[in-house]
Amino acid sequence: MQPFAYARAASREGAVAAIAGRPGAVFLAGGTSLVDLMQLGVLRPEAVVDLNGLPEASIRVGPEGAWLGALARNSDVAAHAELRAAYPLLAEALLAGASPQLRHMATVGGNLMQRVRCPYYRDTAFACNRREPGTGCAAIGGCRRGHAVLGTSPHCIATHPSDMAVALAALEAEVEVQGPHGDRRVSFEDFYRLPGDTPHRATTLAPDELITGVWLPPLPFARRSGYLKVRDRASFDFALASAAAAVDWRDGVIHDVRLALGGVATRPWRAHAAERVLLGQPASPALFLRAADAELAAARPFEANAFKVPLARRTIARLLERLCGLGDAS
Fold first, then answer.
1. pLDDT tens, residue by residue, 229-260
2. Are 247 and 320 in contact (CB under 8 A)?
3. Are 63 and 130 in contact (CB under 8 A)?
4. Cβ–Cβ contacts within 10 Å for residue 230, how many?
5. Number of C-alpha atoms within 13 angstroms, CB side, residue 326?
6. At what angle do helices 285-296 and 308-323 cross, to 10 degrees?
7. How many CA atoms lie within 13 A of 243 on its CB side?
8. What string of DSSP letters covers 223-256?
9. pLDDT digits (tens, 9 = 90+) for 159-192
10. What is the Cβ-side half-sphere exposure of residue 29, based on CA atoms within 13 angstroms?
11. Residue-level pLDDT at 1
């Protein structure tokens, strides 16, 4: 780990000012991802700005929706009674995402900004366009079992690692950020970028912008929602495929639905094609599989990760069956 300057921010404005004009500076919240990557030599910041003195950990739930402060710990979000009642898929995603020890440290803002878990990104001996733009993608010619089948490019095929972000994508969350020129709010759909030919730019944040919180819109039918994650080991592994969904299911018909996928794409993947197939239709296992097929038609797998397509198909169907009370979806 190379030497770096350290500063502890006393205000939002101070945090933004401390990083402005310093492309080699980073924000520190829980540090569960950042510190690991610094120890591996993947990230070599010249300065670290500690945010933990800021009062940004509030959680509020009301008729207008919910607010998650950027420094709210994942364990507090998962345990919040009103959030669990209004948006159960969020708590399920957080509980599936990490061990209790990590949840006690990890924050909402840090979760959104965590880097990909691609082994080629985390090993500086290999070429990686995310780590060093223009050097190539060793994953494309390497071991690709855990990599993405949706949203890939010739420059990057790494999956986005966050479980929480998949739930937030399904809930149509908005990310509030502050920068030198004031506050702005970004839709979750626009927050993450596809890799394209600039995979090192994972979000639309400017380098000197700070996440201050996440807004969840009021969504009454999100009370019927859930998250399903499939992985090699239930104890700690990242998703091979996951699905988050909220369903307005009445009189056997799907009147509205929100669906997002994880573990299979380069960013939290909102499943718009699947939603279009589901809307207004009588709920059935056959419908759920047809919706999954519509979404996964765009998948571009390699031989080693082709299993993710049928796995994601079954994951979508199983979660929707559970939420609509159909079949044996225990």
1. 999 988 778 999 999 999 999 999 999 999 99
2. yes
3. no
4. 19
5. 18
6. 140
7. 30
8. GSEEEEEE-S-TTTPPPSEEEEEEEEEETTEEEE
9. 999 999 999 999 999 999 999 888 999 999 999 9
10. 28
11. 66
Beta-strand relationship, 174-179 and 210-216: antiparallel
Residues shown for the chain: 330
Spatial separation of the C-alpha atoms in residues 232 and 330, rounded to whole Å = 19
Identity at 289, one-letter amino acid code: L
Q: What is the DSSP string of 148-195?
A: -SBS-BTTB-PPP--SHHHHHHHTT-EEEEEETTEEEEEEHHHHBPP-
Tell me how far the alpha carbon of residue 302 is from its chain's centroid. 23
Q: Which two tokens stand for residue 122?
A: 């985390």
CB 154 within 8 A of CB 140: yes
Instruction: Give the per-residue pLDDT at 329.
Output: 45
The encoded tokens of residue 257 equal 């639905």
Secondary structure of residue 269 in the 3-state scheme: strand
Residue written as token pair 């299979």 = 264
Measured distance CA(90)–CA(27) in Å, rounded: 25
What span, in angstroms and rounded, lies between the C-alpha atoms of 121 and 219? 37
CA 34 centroid distance within chain: 16
Give whole-number Cα distances, 175 to 15, 110, 165, 191, 213, in Å.
18, 12, 11, 7, 6
34 close to 28: Cβ distance less than 8 angstroms: yes
Query: Going along the chain, which residue ranges are E strands?
Result: 5-8, 25-28, 47-50, 59-62, 65-69, 174-179, 182-187, 210-216, 225-230, 241-250, 253-262, 269-270
Structure tokens at 149: 């089948």
Q: Name the token pair of 200.
A: 């090192």
First-to-final CA distance of the chain: 47
Q: Which two tokens stand for residue 83?
A: 């959030």
Quick: pLDDT tens for 144-162: 999 999 999 999 999 999 9
